[in-house]
Amino acid sequence: MTMKIDLHSHTYYSDGHLSPAELVLRAHQMQLDVLAITDHDTTQALAEARHAQAQEKRHLEIISGIELTTRWHGFDIHILGLHFDEHDEQLQQRLLEQTRTRVDRARQICVKLAKCGIENVFDDAMVKVGQGQITRAHIAQVLLERGEVSSFQGAFTKYLGKDKRAFVSAQWIDIATAIQWIHEAGGVAAIAHPASYDMKTKWLKRLLSEFKSLGGDGMEVTHPNMQPTKKELLAKLALEYDLKAVVGSDFHFPSRWSELGKRLDISAKLTPLWQDWPCLASFNKEYL
Known about the structure:
By secondary structure, the protein is an alpha/beta fold. The protein has nine helices and seven strands, in the order βαβαββαααααβαβαβ. α4 crosses α5 (136-145) and α5 (136-145) crosses α6 (152-160).
C-alpha cells in the first residue's frame, strides 16, 4: 500500500487552532497514515497527541517534529526537525532560548503598537497563548478582535509584516545552530516552505547550497495549493543540491486552501526523507 503522509502541522501550542487531540482526530478524518507535529520552537503537543492516538483503533504513526526559527541574511528561515528524541534534555534546554527570544520579540512589538496608540496588547495575546509559544499570529488576532484591523492578514499588512510600523527583527539562532540542535537530538533537518520566502531564485539557491554544506538533510517540495511550475522548480533544486524531499501541508486549521495530507504527491525522481525510518518499514518505500 501507499501511505498518506504529512510532515508539517501545527497545534494551539504555537499558531495552530486545534488541540493535539483534535489534530489527531483530523488526521484520521483525512485518512493519514503518518503525521508529524511541528509546532514553532516547542514539542509540547507531542505527548498529548500520542495519548490521544492511544485511544484510537485506527493506526496513525506520529513523528516527532519541530519548526525552528532562524535568521539568515535578513530572512527568517524556518527549519523543520523531524524524527528526533523529543525527550532529549539538551534539546529541551536549548528550546528555552527560543522561548525567551519569542517573548522578548512579542514585548517589543507591543511597545511599538502602544506608540501607535494600541495599548496592553501583550497581556491579551498571552491569554490566547496559554501554555504554548507566542507568535505574531496571537498579536494579530488581538488586533482583529479589537477592531484595529479589518482582517487577520491586515494586521501584518499594516503593523506586523516586515518593515511595517510594529515589526521587530528577533535575534534568532542561525541555521547551523538549528541543524546542530536537531542532529544532536538524533533527528533530520529540512528547510520548511522554501517557496514562501520573499527572495529571488538566486538567493534561494544560495540558501539551499549553504544549508546543504552545513549538513542539512532535506527540503519541503510541495504544498496543497502549490502551482505546478513552482513544484517543478523545487523538485529541480532538491535534485541539484542533493536534498531529500519532505511533504507537508503546514496545516494550522481546516480550510479550503490547506488541509492535512491534501495533494502532497512528489516526483518519483526525488528521494523521500523518510524512506529509511524504521517506524515506517511496514509501508512501501514508493510514494506517489
